[in-house]
Amino acid sequence: MKARYSLKVFWICCLLLWQQGLAQQSSKVKTAHPSLLLTEQGARQIKESLGSYPLLDQSYAQLKKEADKALKAKMDVPFPRDPAGGHTHKQHQKNYKTMQAAGVVYQVTKDERYARFIRDMLLAYAKIYPILPLHPEATSKTPGKLFWQSLNDCVWLVHTIQAYDCIYTWLSPEDRNTLNKQLFYPMTKFLSEESAYSFNRIHNHGTWTVAAVGMTGYVLGDQELVEKSLYGLGKDGKGGFFAQLDQLFSPDGYYTEGPYYQRYAMMPFVLFGKAIAQHQPKYNPFAYRDSVLVKAVQTTLQLTYNGDFFPLNDAIKGENLTTDELVYAVDLVYGYTGQRELLSIANMQQRVILTAEGVAVAAALSKGEAVPFNWRSMAVRDGAQGNDGGIGILRSVAEPDHTCAVFKYSAHGLSHGHYDKLSILLYDKGQEVLQDYGAVRFVNVLEKNGGRYLAENKTWAHQTVAHNTVVVDGQSHFGGDIRRSETSAPQGLYFNSENPAVQVSAATTTDAVPGVKMSRYVALIQDAQLQEPVLLDVFDLASDTEHQYDLPYYYLGALTTTNFERKEIVGTTLGKDHGYEHLLLQAEAKPGKGAAQITWQNKEQFYTLTTAATDKTQVLFTQIGATDPDQNLRHEPGLLLRVPQAKHYTFVSVVEPHAKRSTASQVAAVELLVKSATGMAVGLRLASGEERVLLLSKGPVSAGPSEVILDGKKVRWQGTHWYGLRGELPVNL
Amino acid sequence: MKARYSLKVFWICCLLLWQQGLAQQSSKVKTAHPSLLLTEQGARQIKESLGSYPLLDQSYAQLKKEADKALKAKMDVPFPRDPAGGHTHKQHQKNYKTMQAAGVVYQVTKDERYARFIRDMLLAYAKIYPILPLHPEATSKTPGKLFWQSLNDCVWLVHTIQAYDCIYTWLSPEDRNTLNKQLFYPMTKFLSEESAYSFNRIHNHGTWTVAAVGMTGYVLGDQELVEKSLYGLGKDGKGGFFAQLDQLFSPDGYYTEGPYYQRYAMMPFVLFGKAIAQHQPKYNPFAYRDSVLVKAVQTTLQLTYNGDFFPLNDAIKGENLTTDELVYAVDLVYGYTGQRELLSIANMQQRVILTAEGVAVAAALSKGEAVPFNWRSMAVRDGAQGNDGGIGILRSVAEPDHTCAVFKYSAHGLSHGHYDKLSILLYDKGQEVLQDYGAVRFVNVLEKNGGRYLAENKTWAHQTVAHNTVVVDGQSHFGGDIRRSETSAPQGLYFNSENPAVQVSAATTTDAVPGVKMSRYVALIQDAQLQEPVLLDVFDLASDTEHQYDLPYYYLGALTTTNFERKEIVGTTLGKDHGYEHLLLQAEAKPGKGAAQITWQNKEQFYTLTTAATDKTQVLFTQIGATDPDQNLRHEPGLLLRVPQAKHYTFVSVVEPHAKRSTASQVAAVELLVKSATGMAVGLRLASGEERVLLLSKGPVSAGPSEVILDGKKVRWQGTHWYGLRGELPVNL
């Protein structure tokens, strides 16, 4: 027995040693290095192309400058201590960037100083990593070791493993062994098994995690790590890269958290995707699910105005197409598809990644192959099956300073989602006209909660009243309950941008506020008699019981005039909860029945909102930033249309950019002329006196023709809408 | 008797006719045309130089484009009706611009279409002018006819007379006769005799008036009009161009109304000056009074930060060195002085005027003769004799993004002056850090009181509390009485920028608040241990009776942190009058004894104010824009240091830009260590722990050495100040 037992132990030990040896052995034998993004051939191409393509030269010079600067600096691998924005946080970020840069430069130049820099730094990490506790500033349920949250550890690894890959064959077996045993294996273990929640999560954190672990698996030649990364810890397809591709994107490539996180999430998807394509081409990740990754990159680009992402959900404003993530995404997808309109984006970015794809982009650009990217009107579906509402984008033209309305009827979008069903945004002449506040967060400002989200992100930014949509009875949609909100997205009724002169998008929800059917019809109208495109906004509410309906519009700029008296108010917050406590009431008015007009100035440009007021309508003028002891909110204006008590009510308004520098509105009035079971007629009177009618189907359009009685006649139309002179209504259809 | 009487009448009539004939005759005989700014030779130079100097080509092309566009448009000389910003206002402005442009193009090309355009338009004006009443929108005591105020009529004439000058010889004698009789003579009569108040006024309106009339006098060859313009209606030197040059500028070329109006006023001065120089070179206007016109242009350029004028007094923000006025001023003064640093300003302006001087500038620039303009630290004296205080400008370096403190201890500055004795402004990295609000006015926004100054300009912008200076007992300086304020300017104590590492400016007043001596010492310190220059601000108050002392700082950006607790306040205005009614109180704090620190973020940049708080010190956090029914005010933040009851008190603070993107302050504390009859010692503790002392003479410096007892030792220094380590105080001087 004893002998057999010993033998068994012996065999088990052998097996373990063999497995470990195999892991290391196989990486030596099977895998070429580098081969995650940059390959030996890619490095050769870069070397041979330098001096030929300006964008490549520039990008390489920048990277080399970074690497050279790092080589001269004193190495600093501090014991992790600070939260986001603090010294150790920034230093570890800097380290992975400089290691990655040095890796590329080493591959291009074969100058060993760069390799030694990486080796020495990695060995310094290997020295501390095994003894690292969880980060002292960890406050989330996904703590990191190098950083306060494991997400940042993953980002560190995604970059660092590329550097390791670049010097892998150069390293001595001893150093490789030390690094594998003391750094990369412990780290992948920590990020996979020991962080199972993150690893298996269908969420951008999950994507970063599987990308980090999977890419490391490829470099270490550890197929087990790769398999888990592709299919989840249980290798059962419930988590991992493919499950994430299946569930996080809609068939149109919309990422459920919205554009800001879509930008961020694209990075691990395209990086890991590229690594998979190189190592296991059979998976063909860029073709997977009807090329959803390619669509996702295209959609990310579409979800912008003048290069800036629509700031939906928890978004930091000002992030744009030139961020690192999009440089990777655009170059790698160009490498796969050769789509020439991506080149014009690369041209905006003014840099390329240092891989064969980057060379191809720079080469194509220098040969003048770029064609303009076509930002266009489109409806983007949300939800894995495409059934969870979406985003309607209406653009006047494809040029940079165009007018653009964004209609959000998407799903909640996970933890970073807002209670903003049927909200709209408006842009014009390069600036925000009706804004989405975005997130309450000062990224990298240590003093502001370590750069993390602030309390007002939930109490203000998430709330319905922080958006350009209707709040019923002063309460946020779904009562501000994410579990309820996650269960129901609005239903897209129709989207029609066939005729650029009149484009419409409509959606509805009966769940956001139980007992109240909310439907919104957004039209972008380019009337030959108007100098500028206008937004016609119809918000229809129907309930069997009485409610207070509030419709805020967060215009940016300074109020100049109203065509009605305002009463100034000092020192009242608009309410006590659901975000109303953050609104300071500055003035109120009862314009009375008729067209109420409010004009404001934003930089050199004037805008007017014309709304059909009734006897009941109140207009409240507000400022964001009350109940804000730490002054975390931006003090920006808003106006709020209020109907205190109504069952059925339809807000009808026009938001109109003025002609350049003009202070005169071209719209005199707007009103709901009539509403039937199937349609609505909205009247628009121009300052010139001419009268227009927009007939809107209540939708969905498949329901057949719509009909209203107007001017004593039966008016009937097919499809989504009809627009024209009041004297030429389609009465004889 | 009857015969003799008739004879007398006859002779008088003859004399009158002869005079009138002479006027017309002499203009034909004596004067070359054109000769105001552009001359025949200048036009020839332009023609010959086109194609050689890019800036000339560009400027001429722009002018020609304007003229060509006007030639194609339908002529519109409307009957005056609208206030500033309205159609007829804008059209008459457009007309004088296009006529002037067409005049230049005619002289260069001799293409008669341009001459005909001017003739036809002038004849259209001649048709309506004789029957024009005062403008229907006239509200000032200086009504115009074409415009709501006569000032604009003058501006119209200054431009139009140049166009007339350009086609004078081309015109038929009949047309000339018509235009002289029906347009130019009636207009000069209206603007001189019938507007005697404006004409004789020592004020920028006066300068525009005499320039318009005087330039017209030269073109009509009417020396009487010229003499009146040079010496006032009474030709006694009490008014007119020279009296204005004597009284409106200080010996340093500072214009008493401040930079914004200085920019505006420069235009008629240099235009009329040039016309005088061409017609009556004996007057040598650019050499007059020790070249005060040249100095004035130089000083105008110095009164800027990154090209923008310091917004002192009633200033519209954003006006900069590239305005038309400065293009004229720079080119004409270059023509006189040949100062090569003016060329770099012309390069910023990217255009030149179309005269011989413009050709010279464009030629010199294309030959690379420009040298950088030297924005430097300097004290600029105010007052005709240079005795009425001034402006201290402290700059860290001459580069665009430098740190710059502006200390205003000038005279009131006529009707556009503010009650802001001893106020400061701070700039850094291209942006305003501590702002002056400027004026409450929306230029050209018809809906905002026709684009004129708004009520809040007086109730807010003029008031002391709207500025970064001390308000005593909640009342503006001089009780907000301009008559009192005009009688007393602060006294400059000293200015010392010899050593760029520590520059100081000090001034005092005992008149702004009777019974309270107010003295301010402003130092810009560039300490080798600090990454950025800091502003050290000492405001010393002395009274025999108790007062409330308020010192506001109008920082721009968003508060990020304070090192003390703040209590949020909702809905209180800070007071009822003197501008306090326009401040909304948002939070208050009693930081307690020690260094109170307030940090804010402006775009990417952080700033900290560190102040020595006592047990009494209150810090109020405010927002501009309460009691503002028409929303005329910008909602911008401020903080206010308050000492509720004190006789003697010294506010000591440091305002510190952080290193780029850093959120960490490098200053730990500041305090007043000791004060004596002759000097003060201010202690500065850096975050590194090192201690510095700034010894400041109380001034004036001529008073001899200063002395304090510090750390038990007698510390003595000569001159304005001493700065160094606390351990190395000058005890053995």
From TrEMBL, chains A, B:
UniProt xrefs under InterPro entries: Alginate_lyase_dom (IPR008397), Chondroitin_lyas (IPR008929), Hepar_II_III_C (IPR012480)
Which UniProt keywords are listed? Lyase, Periplasm, Signal
- Span-the-membrane segments of this chain are none
Q: Does the keyword Signal apply?
A: yes
The organism's superkingdom is given as: Bacteria
Ranges where the Heparinase II/III-like C-terminal domain occurs: 381-604
Q: What is its main location?
A: periplasm
Keyword check for Signal: yes
Q: Where does the record say this protein resides?
A: Periplasm
- Which ranges carry the Alginate lyase domain? 83-306
Which Gene Ontology terms cover its molecular function?
lyase activity
The signal peptide annotation in the UniProt record is 1-23
Mind telling me what this protein is named? Alginate lyase family protein
